[in-house]
Amino acid sequence: MSGKVYLVGAGPGDEELITVKGLRTIKEADVILYDRLANKKLLRYAAEDAETFYVGKKANDHYRTQKEINELLISKAQAGKIVTRLKGGDPFVFGRGGEEATLLAEAEIEFELVPGITSPVSVPAYAGIPLTHRDFNSSVAFVTGHQDPSKDKDFIDWDKLATGVGSLVILMGVGNLPKIVPRLINAGRDPQTPIALIRWGTRPEQETLTGKLENIVSKVEAADFQPPAVIIIGEVVHMHDKLNWFEKKPLFSKEIVVTRPTKQAAGFCQQLSRAGAKVIEAPAIKITPPEDYKPLDESLKKLNEYDWIIFTSVNGVKYMMERLFSLGHDVRALAGANLAAIGSKTAAELKSYSLKVDYIPEDYVSEAILADFSDQDLTGQKFLLPRANIARPTLEEGLEDLGADVDNITAYKTIQGAGNKNLVSRLAEDKIDVVTFTSSSTVRNFIEMLGADYHQLLSGVKLACIGPITADTVRDFGLEVEIIADEYTVEGLTTALQEYYN
To answer: What CDD domains would the database entry show (predicted)?
Structure first.
């Protein structure tokens, strides 16, 4: 039974520029074929059991030939699979989508075309260059620069394009630029015409080079400006300096490492990306269930005995509530206890279970809770602390010193994460700008992953911490902390990073 193929435009590079329908086809696919210009981060939306194949191609370097790609599309579809073919930009704009669709039609395989946001439009927009503007032009043409203009070809009439359109957008033309420019000038285009080359447009690596037709070739050579790039020729390029919004983002081009657990890093990564950063995920910790549920279960059976339950993290809430529900109870079991939460995120997690938080300390650290309880006699009062296996003893010991009876229970485990296989080489090449830490355990595990050379690898790298406790852990390793959030949340850390670079 034949399957189905979706030919999907993945957009120009910014992962948020995928269409709603395109994202759905990724989620539903049994097989995904993605090319070099499709953002690989889109694959995280795929099903866990989906097959993925990299089929990228660039000049003189084809990971798979077009013939091999065609055969893979047909064989997987004929095996009854739902196949999503992810192509950079739009499949029908210099993407060979028409060829692949024809092949599928001839093989009588069902297919759908999902248009994408094409780079000739989106990349100039991210560089602040409108393709049309009433003060400059009212026409635009898209052409491929892949064909050598010095050869006699029927596909592109450079002589007519030279003066026949206001804005000329050239894709895949960096290599042939020394031949394209003189052809346009000889055909009548003013040598003073402004031109822009935008490399890796819509991504944090975006780089824009501007000049005039008469000097752009020498500028490209001097800058060693490499493809892939979109080229815009026309008076609209004058708007770049005024409207260049993307490259002015506070964290634009900064390569920032996030050490949070993978499942909890998404929101933080998204905030950094939207501020212009290139995010490198290197999870230093992983959150898992406790090895033995018995201590937690015993505490859950006697929840009515506790005066206070103090949650120190979102994970503590999640793991305790999940275990409570699995034992056949619901939120009514917590009716007799006061609930305290360290941090607004922890409080919000409790609220998601329709639980009212009785107390949130002004500073999101254990010491703040102890300071607020310090003038009370806690003798005879019972406290439950559902926490990580490696939680600091400060809160437990401090409450006991005030007379409280404390059950410090392991609700979840914190173990070393998977890291990132490219991280050490990126650090060694001085590519990383910032490493962020959101807990003391992320610090310790990250340093352990780097090994004995961590001082040298982190030389010149800015270290950013979610709060003072985490910062102190960094300093324990003899490292300097440049950035500490005023509000001890990932939002506060994002703000601190932006303020630092501003």
So the answer is: HemD, SUMT
Which residues does the annotation mark as catalytic? 35, 57, 172
Q: Are 236 and 184 in contact (CB under 8 A)?
A: no
Other Cβ atoms within 10 Å of 36 Cβ, number = 16
Q: Encoding tokens for residue 41?
A: 């981060």
Q: Is 298 exposed, middle or buried (0-12, 13-18, 19+ CB in 10 A)?
A: exposed
Fold match between domain 255-284+417-501 and domain 288-413: yes
A 10 A CB-CB count for 75 gives 12
> Is there a contact between 426 and 280 (Cβ–Cβ < 8 Å)?
yes
318: DSSP letter: H
- Specify the pLDDT at position 56: 83
Alpha-carbon gap, residue 163 to 149, rounded angstroms: 16
- Predicted confidence band of residue 153 (pLDDT cuts 50, 70, 90): low
- Beta strand extents in 163-291 (DSSP E only): 167-171, 194-199, 207-212, 229-233, 255-258, 278-281, 285-288
Domain covering 121-247 in this structure, CATH number = 3.30.950.10
Q: Which two tokens stand for residue 26?
A: 């990724």
What is the C-alpha separation between 125 and 11, in angstroms, rounded? 13
**pLDDT per residue as tens digits for the range 164-191:** 999 999 999 999 999 999 999 999 999 9
Overall average pLDDT of the 37-59 stretch: 89
The mean pLDDT value for 307-318 works out to 96
CA 120 to each of CA 129, 167, 169: distance values in angstroms, whole numbers, following the listed order: 11, 11, 6
The reported pLDDT for the residue numbered 144 is 92
For domain 4-116, is the CATH number 3.40.50.920? no
Q: What is the pLDDT of residues 206-256, one digit of tens each?
A: 999 999 999 999 999 999 999 999 999 999 999 999 999 999 999 999 999
